[in-house]
UniProtKB/TrEMBL annotation, chains A, B, C, D:
One of its GO terms (cellular component) is cytosol. Pathway: Metabolic intermediate biosynthesis; chorismate biosynthesis; chorismate from D-erythrose 4-phosphate and phosphoenolpyruvate: step 7/7. This reaction introduces a second double bond into the aromatic ring system. The lineage of its organism: Bacteria, Bacillati, Bacillota, Bacilli, Bacillales. This is Chorismate synthase. It comes from Paenibacillus baekrokdamisoli.
Length: 351, 351, 351, 351
């Protein structure tokens, strides 16, 4: 009801505020008897953490996870797997000047309207910090999906108006923006650095590809596989849209163009993005999301405070001028959670 | 788990196959004591039904709803409100030739892969017919939302490459394609008729605006208001993408452009589409979805049958060459369901 | 939220009022490809229907079920299986005299307090009529459980102070009270008839045995198998208590007596009732429930009307002087629903 | 699905094993703006902790709770409230001898059958230690219920064959067994000490009374207030039965005796236990549960090990010879959770 859980048969609940004592996640429904250790999860955490490169926030948040339960002698037990991350390098005083003002683009105003109270420090629960728990849980799901032969990758497709022209999978994790085109990556980095110097920020597009999913995955009516993926992606703060396969381009296509014809070897195209009627076709699942420009900028902007008094505000702090590089592992994590949940739901149906 | 329910505090469950005996919906969580009758719901059903105009399917499906429970002496009782629509004008024999083949763009193949069995008649459960129950339930939600002072409208923004240039709200329900620009509407109708004659189909874009929502609605983490709207829209068969506010254009915007600044009167822009951090701002909620071209076309296409034998297929039947006009009330219905559910969830939190 | 659904992976939703147009049930999560027809379900309906014998209500409610969806050519499809029962032999006028009064033991007062409105005809939704949908859904679950080798039987253990001394399984369905002791059954029938003549009613105890469940079924913390069975039983209007295995007698036992010891062949006793730590042991699952005396009696009783005016009330109508015989199939149905749900949940975990 | 969460609008998830690093609970759906601090919760924890008296386990488990999130400057924020308890005084080596054997009455065998793997240390997740999280969450619910004017008390009614003859509320927390009759309490303590010396254990009965609940609380079909209370109680490991109001005695009562008549001042009796048709009457809610004898005894018992080899086992360790005194706060906690959840659900319906 209050919406801090996600999934059904494989279900996570996150908790914790950005500048509170800790953030974390509980995973309920983990397959028992699977080998799992902290370093495996830590790999994904390190892809999300700040301070990775010149284009990410310089905060030195130490994202060291700790498994508190659900793993015994190196194997999952089937009981709730809980993961905790203590918060460090918190500087709540950085927020004291603006604690009664509404930062443009942030959820300060909406939280206060909803709850009548808010923890202003570093956006509290609305902070990107909340996604740390998601990434940890996603790593557990990824482990289970690997055992099913499934791979999930996301990467930057465009940043600040610069688009990737090629798709070189091996280059993605080698550049600071996680772009699939190494040349475009260089331009993107330059663009971000220039904007950061100007105290501004920019948005971008991230694409995700999922391979190895059997045909027949997904619940066909409300819990369509694409519907659940869409929800999972829009549940990430900075994401404002999603499209599958041909996506918005389908608006200008004819039925004879968009339909994926088949022959004895399978589908002849993949305009559907690997999902038809909410169920996987067995083709690669492919979707794109739009990432809005980071809201925290150091250019003065018009706003009001809690008393309605108008003022100019500058969002100080150590922020990412473009969130694409660090949102990539969050997108992969959410995709992993959706897939593992649907596999388990399929298991329930067939049992 | 099996995904035929939607919502939490205001929850619907749909049932029924396209060419079975009936389709329907159960609504659990209706506010008691609200005046409601069948004609109010029928208005929305009539906007969705086939045979409305030259650009919709000529089927004469008689979408007459019947309330079976949950209303007593003209008022809701708080008990499950069930609505039934008997299927009529079924011609299952129209499907007998292709019952063992996979129609391109349809869910024939994916259903068989999932269930190992399928009701081939008129797509069974994957048919647009399933949305009749949604529209009926959406009308009940709309009634409750009207009492809250909320209005929800959707309309065609583009069809087959033709875009609306103006937004004239009063014209929407006056043209056969439900476009917000009467001149564009004429071109759209012409385009659809020409494609229909050629046995082809086209896609489009539908926009939705929701007004009157208080600031502070939505659960801020996984069940963000935009996340739930995204899920609800992608759960409609023909929809392949969604974007809020500035949407995909945000990829090319700067933080200084995208952030919605405030003054004492409220927000100075609405690039966020009325939702920040998953919670309503009080501004108009605005989003767009892409509608894929209708899969059923009478141009021969390559496919295989259940034995893997290659063949050419022509999808006969009485289909809509463009589904936009009839999907408009479905989109409104799903938006109503999401909103009423979130209002009730807010009620739970505050009680 | 509003509580008209039960189960998780195998989930039912009931709808309909006693004297409305129809009652029914939607089942979501049915295994596809299972042979199922209406007569199989009807068998269970006929065990629940009124007018079976001299000790049940003489109403001639025609409990003929109709499958509206989810079955195609004699097999389940995996889509929602919906079952409808039209109400017949309704005599709402029988209730017009007392429509503004609160019948003692009935939910008239509590419904009005909750909803501020009520459908007074024959208890509306609080009627035992609502359980017709449960029995229909339970029959579907029973079919799936039979395929797993599981049997579920319930029977009267005591009525009006008369207890069964023997357990003769083959006699249960041969006597009008469904007692496991044919001699006690004769006394029970006599007792009920005598009370009925006096316009009074009585309670009893029903026992349920489930055989063939594998060891290892049940979720060990909140959704313990016994916890879910307890909820399912207490969700039946007339049931006011439940006990497993040794039950309340365990209060006077020592640990050395109550513990079920084991040898190489299995457990040496079954004081636990076949469930330890919320998970099945593989032994017979056995529990008892207490059934309160039927609330509707024709002896004048003190009550008030909606305006608080005191009055004497006589609950006319055609009622069962003891509900045990007809509650037996409802108890079996609820047990079937819990078991099938937990089997599917086990399937999700293991997949 | 995997069953480690409880509640709907006010929902908790517990995690952690008895001898793992920590146990804890996440609460989702807390009303924002409510004053709450750790000492308030600690009071309830201290009522549950071991080592309180001569009749409880001498373990020195330090049940110091820590709120990690959801409270800011002494008030709840509406975000997930997470509470952690680090495990201390763990002596897993005490379990090493019996790690491959099945202790009679314990869930060792059933866990292994379910998961194929188990954390044998101190029963792992099946330990009473898991209830620490429930008690912490229950304290938060109790705070909200106090603001609604509701009180919840539970107490020992019988232990080892000794029954309370009087009900002196003020004496309950003054004796080591939390009995409502101080004289019976003395006998109970003597009985427990004598059994403890003999290495044996005993069971008992606990009663719970809830006052101040408005009439009209509860969802009337599956989620009846008594059904949810029954589930919550049977979800506690040692509890094997529950009865409301007249309970099992109703089997021998007539309708004319059991029905609660009304006059202008309200109900004339409370055989229903304060709940009719699943909805509160406004009367005191009263129910009793049976607590089985503690399974851990130091008298040798027959069992087998994981290889099926027969053996005698003695369950060493520091155990409670009767769990009644320490289960009282757990019962109160679960009742609090059910009530607060139903209040919030009522809030959703009415909003």
């Amino acid at each position: 009801m209050a919406g801090n859980s996600f999934g059904d048969a494989f279900r996570i609940t996150t908790f914790g505020e950005s500048h509170g004592e800790a953030v974390g996640v509980i995973i309920d429904g983990v397959t028992p008897g699977v080998e799992l250790d902290e370093p495996y999860i830590q790999i994904q955490m390190d892809r999300r953490k700040p301070g990775q490169s010149s284009v990410t926030s310089p905060r030195k948040e130490y994202d060291r996870i700790r498994i508190l339960s659900g793993v015994y002698e190196g194997k999952t037990t089937g009981t709730p797997l809980s993961i905790l991350l203590h918060n460090t390098d918190m500087r709540p005083e950085a927020y004291s000047d603006i604690q009664h003002s509404f930062r443009p683009g942030h959820a300060d105003y909406t939280y206060l309207m909803k709850y009548g109270i808010r923890d202003h420090r570093g956006s509290g629960r609305a902070s990107g910090r909340e996604t740390a728990g998601r990434v940890a849980a996603g790593a557990v799901a990824r482990k289970l999906l690997e055992n099913r032969g499934i791979s999930i990758i996301a990467y930057t497709k465009a940043i600040g108006g610069i688009e990737c022209k090629t798709f070189v999978e091996g280059e993605i994790e080698r550049n600071a923006v996680r772009a699939c085109d190494p040349e475009a990556a260089l331009q993107m980095i330059e663009r971000i650095e220039s904007l950061a110097n100007a105290g501004n920020s920019c948005g971008g597009i991230v694409e995700c590809r999922i391979r190895g999913v059997m045909p027949g995955l997904g619940e066909p009516v409300f819990d369509k596989l694409d519907a659940d993926l869409a929800k999972s992606m829009l549940s990430i703060g900075a994401i404002k849209g999603i499209e599958f396969g041909a996506g918005f381009a389908a608006a200008d296509m004819l039925g004879s163009e968009h339909n994926d014809e088949m022959n004895a070897d399978g589908f002849l195209s993949n305009h559907s993005g690997g999902i038809i009627g909410g169920i996987s076709t067995g083709n690669e699942i492919i979707f794109r999301v739009v990432v809005k420009p980071t809201s925290s900028i150091s250019i003065p902007q018009h706003t009001v405070n809690e008393n309605g008094k108008e003022q100019l505000i500058v969002t100080e702090g150590r922020h990412d001028p473009c969130i694409c590089p660090r949102i990539v592992p969050v997108i992969e994590a959410m995709a992993c959670l959706v897939l593992e949940d649907h596999y388990k739901r399929q298991g329930a149906m067939l049992y």
